[in-house]
Amino acid sequence: MVILLSIKPEFTKRIFSGEKKFEFRKQKPNFPASLVFIYESFPTKKIVGWFTVKKMISGTPQEIWDQCGDKGGISRLKFFEYCRENDLVYAFEIERSFKFPDPFDPFTLDSNFQPPQNFSYRNYAIPHVGFDDQKVLDNV
Question: How many structural domains comprise the chain?
Answer without folding.
Answer: 1
